[in-house]
Design brief:
114 residues; alpha+beta; 3 helices; 5 strands; Sugar kinase
C-alpha cells in the first residue's frame, strides 16, 4: 500500500494520518479489540519516536499493538535471531537489539547511534 494513500499531512505524525492508516483495514477486522496489530513505520528512528507513534496509534486501536521501525521487520521475516537489520537506499539505517533487548539505531535522518 502506497504511503500516499494515508500519509496526507507531512511526516508520520501529521494530523489525521493514523486514522487514515487504520481506516484502510479496520472494517475488515472482525474484532479489533482482540486482534493484534504490528506496524513497521518508516520514521520511527529512535525509541522516543517509536513511543510517540505507538501512543498515537493506541489512541485509536483497541487491540494489542507493537510499533517498530520498518527496518526492524527484516529480522522476523528472515527468521534467525539475533539479527542485525540493514536498509540501504536513498537513506540508510541499521537496527539491532542489545543484550537487554533494547533497540540500537545507527543512521536514519540524524545519523547518530541510539
Amino acid at each position: 500500500m502506497a504511503t500516499s494513500t494515508w500519509q496526507q499531512q507531512p511526516g508520520l505524525f501529521g494530523a489525521g494520518n493514523v486514522a487514515r492508516l487504520l481506516g484502510l483495514f479496520r472494517d475488515d477486522v472482525p474484532d479489533p479489540g482482540r486482534t493484534p496489530l504490528a506496524i513497521g513505520a518508516h520514521g520511527c528512528d529512535s525509541a522516543e519516536l517509536v513511543a510517540r507513534f505507538d501512543a498515537l496509534v493506541r489512541g485509536q486501536w483497541e487491540g494489542p499493538l507493537r510499533v517498530v521501525n520498518d527496518a526492524e521487520l527484516l529480522a522476523p521475516a528472515y527468521g534467525p535471531e539475533p539479527a542485525i537489520c540493514l536498509i540501504v537506499g536513498t537513506g540508510s539505517i541499521v537496527i539491532g537489539r542489545d543484550a537487554a533487548g533494547n533497540p540500537v539505531y545507527v543512521g536514519g535522518p540524524r545519523m547518530v547511534a541510539r
